[in-house]
Design a protein that fits this description.
The protein is α/β, with parallel strands linked by helices. It is about 50% helix and about 10% strand. Strands 1-2-3-4 form a four-stranded parallel sheet, covered by helices on one side. The radius of gyration is 20 Å and the shape is elongated.
Length: about 190
Amino acid sequence: MCTKPEQIKSIVKECRQVHPKMCISVKIRIVDDIKSTVELARSIEHAGASFLSVHGRTISERNVKPHYEYIKAIKESISIPVVANGGVYNPDDLIVCQEETGADGVMCAQGLLNNPALFAGHHTTPIQCVQDWINLAITHGTPFITFHHHLVFMLEACLPKSERKILNNLPCTAAVLAWCERVLGVSYQKDALL
């Protein structure tokens, strides 16, 4: 991760010169104070970025409420679109993030890992989403580690701790599929994607 404002500005400027008509997006984390964060955002805009995504935490912050006031200050200080990032785990968080930042868009990562149906308004992963993931993963030969990893995240809020522990320790795709059928009542449906 680049933490040098002049280097970021130089990279964006070079991209803009090489690709004058291309959309250039930049994603940053906030820095220690609002003034420096806004100055960084302005320099990125002036260098030619098309839009800016801002994660509302510093590099060292984990699992704390994002500093939406920083994102709001950026939004009020630049003219390119601003996308807010951080702290979105359910549909209510989407609304809070947008209202508190005034951002043009909201993005999230962990929230979508835990609930791929978040943007459809679901507070936890619906069983149909699990079914769709199983069908997609098996049909397309998703490696076990990826298939299993996503299921663990998707089901974290839906299962009691005892079942999460069992799911976490399943050793192969066949074992996961058997567990899904036994516990969730879902199984691979070969023709579901046709």
